[in-house]
From TrEMBL:
Name listed for the protein in its UniProt record: Transcriptional regulator
Organism the protein comes from: Chelatococcus daeguensis
Cellular component aspect of the GO annotation: cytosol
Gene Ontology molecular functions: DNA binding; DNA-binding transcription factor activity
Keyword Transferase: no
Alphabetic keyword roster: DNA-binding, Transcription, Transcription regulation
SUPFAM superfamilies from the UniProt entry: cAMP-binding domain-like, Winged helix' DNA-binding domain
Length: 225
């Protein structure tokens, strides 16, 4: 299942535009991004791999996760079209990245970063994407530490609706297990929480089980806090 979004961030990340801008300024064109298509659950990179590239999603959704010492998986983020991920301070990736749905990404070499950032549009979009990622990470930290299961699910659904342009019906590209590992819950708790929200008339869960209809956004917002 794919989600395709024609966002400003996705439109501005155009390798040909970046290359032309570099030439116009008398600089060496940065290596154009290489496109990679991923099947659902296909790995892009593993924790500890050399961080030679960073990435932008153009189609579908990519999840980044870490395997904990006890074998559990913690999904730190879902990356949608226009999102940038894999930017590391060190030489290795701190998380693994796999496709949550069929996905397409563009890889940019870290060694070309100086040339890429010389383009004002590119640097502005990278900074904006990273700031949004930091904001989401801070919200996620609060969610994991202080919210009940119902509140976690409500927060997740509100976030998905916002990222999918405020849709009243959210077609989730990730599995219930992915949601559980993102929210620090069991898959059974995720199912029970969705059933409880449906019983209260706040959401509807059609037979497809991937689409969630948000019947009462105000109630979800209250649970979101």
């Amino acid at each position: 299942m794919q989600i395709v979004m024609n966002t400003p961030a996705a439109r501005h990340f155009d390798a040909a535009v970046l290359s032309r801008a570099a030439v116009a300024q008398g600089r060496r064109p940065a290596g154009v991004g290489s496109v990679r298509t991923l099947d659902k659950d296909e790995e892009l990179f593993a924790e500890g791999d050399p961080a030679v590239s960073f990435y932008r999603v153009t189609q579908g959704v990519v999840r980044t996760s870490k395997l904990l010492s006890d074998g559990r998986r913690q999904i730190d983020a879902f990356h949608f079209p226009g999102d940038v991920f894999g930017v590391e301070a060190g030489a290795e990736h701190r998380f693994s990245a796999e496709a949550a749905s069929a996905a397409t990404v563009v890889a940019y070499r870290r060694r070309d970063l100086d040339d890429l950032l010389f383009d004002e549009t590119f640097s502005r979009e990278v900074l904006g994407a990273m700031m949004h990622a930091l904001e989401r990470a801070q919200r996620h930290m609060l969610l994991l530490g202080r919210k009940s299961a119902i509140e976690k699910i409500a927060t997740f659904l509100v976030d998905m609706a916002e990222r999918l342009a405020g849709a009243d019906a959210v077609e989730l590209p990730m599995s219930r297990l992915d949601i559980a590992d993102h929210l620090g819950l069991t898959i059974e708790t995720v199912s029970r929480s969705l059933t409880e929200l449906e019983r209260k008339g706040i959401i509807d869960v059609p037979a497809s089980r991937r689409t969630i209809v948000l019947r009462d956004k105000a109630a979800l917002a209250r649970l979101n806090g």
